[in-house]
UniProtKB/TrEMBL annotation:
It comes from the Bacteria. The lineage of its organism: Bacteria, Bacillati, Actinomycetota, Actinomycetes, Kitasatosporales. SMART domains: Robl_LC7. This is Roadblock/LC7 domain-containing protein. Residues 10-102 form the Roadblock/LAMTOR2 domain. Pfam families: Robl_LC7 (PF03259). InterPro entries: Mycobact_SerProt_Inhib_Rv3364c, Roadblock/LAMTOR2_dom. It comes from Streptomyces noboritoensis.
Amino acid sequence: MTSGTTGENSWVLDAILEIPHVRAAVLLTRDGLVSGYTQALSQASAERTAAIMSTVQGACRTAAAAFADQEDARIRQVVIESDHGYILVAPTAHGTCVAAYGDPDVRLDLLAHRVHSQVARLGEKTMAAAPRGADGATHA
């Protein structure tokens, strides 16, 4: 596996890559744009993965709301199991998502814990960032 990440907030993915059998990860916006990805993916694969994961999350929100007979649902995570391994997707509170892929030997509990820990760290960093005005200046 190629290690390392690409993108402004890709530091979130570094700790996920440390888990044995994790092969790739993507940081994406809720609307399917790539914010960061692991070097195991090409940019085209990261973009395709982000678009697909965004669609999957939307479908899962709709399904969860329909089953609960509600207007909307907040998704905490989506897990996909296939003969190739596991995909775990966890949204953040501020509109981004972390998606990670591990082969069939990955410990899903460890992967879930690490992804959610990194989602929390990303949220803390985002909340700690000072707001910017229209002119780009930081306001205290």
